[in-house]
């Protein structure tokens, strides 16, 4: 309906985080495991077929080219033609490694076939590569293929993978011309309008050069309709998390006061049971009995304080050991949290900077969380000492 057509599109924070990891050379912890395998390179050297189909790269480049039905409905070849340092849907395909990437760039045979595979997929989308710098234009069959591309949106995932793989294997400069062409066709020519959301949310952010990304976003802003619905980037992290990040930790004083109020409330059952037993008495008798109970409670508190001092002197050594152990554990926990904090703060700050957002709120939330954890553990230690003292005096009074 009209409301949905004019609704402002949303951007995914999770998509931005995934592409942020890609742009910053997401750490691959499997290098040692796959260092001597090099299955992606061996596939491009035509030494092994891709699994599970059992087809060699030469057969794909020669016989599958122009067979749009096969390229459309087969979903296992794309992970082999455009490998990444992340797992895809085809679990037979292995991730790239940093060592394999360097070897791939040195192998002319592999690079030549990689460019042929790129041209084959561009033709499948209705695009052609026109020079060695990566510039592209409409292919001869562009009308038919653009209509198909506008309807088959699963191919947008393939384009994202192709762009990522170009950057991994030494063709980062090929990304910007392709993304610019897609934005022009989607926003200006309106030939593939359904692709514009993926182009702005995924394709643009595969480009590692920040200036190139900004140029593409400015171009998109100029031609986006309606212009007020254009979004520069995903929402800030604290907005997506809702009210959780807006909550401020309670101060140590408020926590201490709440503990005192709970400690006093623990004595209420004594007065309640006394008032319950005098339910049939007159109002004056109840008041007199209540006053008497209050005086007895005050006297009990004084005796408990005196007994607590004696009990503390007797158990000074054991309490000291317990306090030192708890404090050491507390210091260890706080140090662990401090070691983990810089990495997350840096990632969130860089991600928000890339998207044009302000990371100040995220840093404040992280600091508040760390201070809250420290204050809470200190108050818990104080409460533990008080409970030990209270427990000892209560046993003695009884």
TrEMBL record:
Span of domain Opioid growth factor receptor (OGFr) conserved: 35-238
Biased composition annotated in UniProt, kind: Basic and acidic residues: 282-295, 327-349
Region feature (Disordered): 229-398
Signal peptide: none
Top-level taxonomic group: Eukaryota
Cellular component GO terms held in the UniProt record: membrane
Compositional bias of kind Polar residues: 369-380
GO MF annotation: an example: opioid growth factor receptor activity
InterPro entries: OGF_rcpt (IPR006757), OGFr (IPR039574)
Family the entry assigns: Belongs to the opioid growth factor receptor family.
Protein name: OGRL1 protein
Upper classification of the organism: Eukaryota, Metazoa, Chordata, Craniata, Vertebrata
